[in-house]
Amino acid sequence: MKRQTAGSVAAMGVLGMVAGSWVSAQTPMANPADQHSERASTNAAPSGLVHTWDLPPITVTGQKPSPLREEDRIGEYAQPRWTATRRFPRSRIYVIPDGKMEFEYWLRLDVPKSGPTKVQNFYEVEFGLPHRLQFDLYLVSRNEGEGTTYLDQQFEMRYAFADWGVLPGNPTLYAEYALLDEAPDKVEAKLLLGDEIATGWHWGANLVFEGEITGDELEHEYAATLGLSRTVLDEKFSIGAEAETSFVDTKDDRGDYSKEVYVGPSIQYCPLRNAHVDVAPLIGVTDDANRAKIFLNAGWEF
Fold it and tell me: Is the pLDDT reported for residue 288 higher than 90?
């Protein structure tokens, strides 16, 4: 596993550099005019981490106050509090606040109509960076169902174009590199969109391109996801639905796509103010789709 060892060393090096830069960025410079920074530093933990559940609401001119605490505007980017935590397992939204650090565990099951189930376990660390940037690092264990477990690494960066509410849909660019064990490496690009429809109603949508950059088939995937959520208990419980559609082709059959569509319910439960659990069992509804894709995500904010 020489390649895997080198990849692990690279991952540790990148994590060290990003963590060092991130921690350094948490030491605020004196600027009395910057009221947002003052609020963030006042509510930061001794380590310099920002606890999003403690951030005070800020007043946005022309924005009608919501009766829900999770829709308070917080932080440098004046984003709703609910966007600081992943709301949909399949659709990502915006960036986390500058100074936030979170660990997430993912379980993804791809259940085919015949044959073994593909199991993936994701271990992710998220860093909220200045200037509407976010960096995520993943370690992934992957089992294709034949008994062998592979170890992959993924590196993700996001950039939001503007503070929340300035642009329609709050567009955010997402780029990811996946270094896969005994499989073609991949790059992925997404456009992340999301917003509030009305009090308690939230949505997210992603436009996705994923492509293999090594191997013989050079598979391409073009996909779109959509999530809709309704708050049942403020900051505690929400229900909704998610959908995904994708078109996949290979180097020798460009334009001859397999078509997959999945739909299913989505649930979020927050047992503690710094913890959340999301579940989305999506059912395949086209001939090319698997029987199901099942997502479970649990996060812990430091």
Answer: yes
Domain span including residue 193: 2-301
| Residue 44: DSSP 8-state | B
Per the structure, the count of domains in the chain is: 1
Q: How much is the mean pLDDT over the chain?
A: 88
The number of residues making up the chain comes to 302
| Residue 66, domain CATH | 2.40.160.40
Q: How far is CA 250 from CA 21, 110, 207, in A?
A: 39, 20, 19
- Distance in angstroms (rounded) separating the CA atoms of residues 97 and 243: 27
Give 182-204 pLDDT, tens digit per residue.
999 999 999 999 999 999 999 99
The reported pTM is: 0.85
Phi, psi (deg, nearest 5) at residue 143: -125, 120
The pair of structure tokens assigned to 99 is: 């100074």
Q: How many CA atoms lie within 13 A of 86 on its CB side?
A: 29
Phi, psi of 46 (to 5 degrees): -55, -30
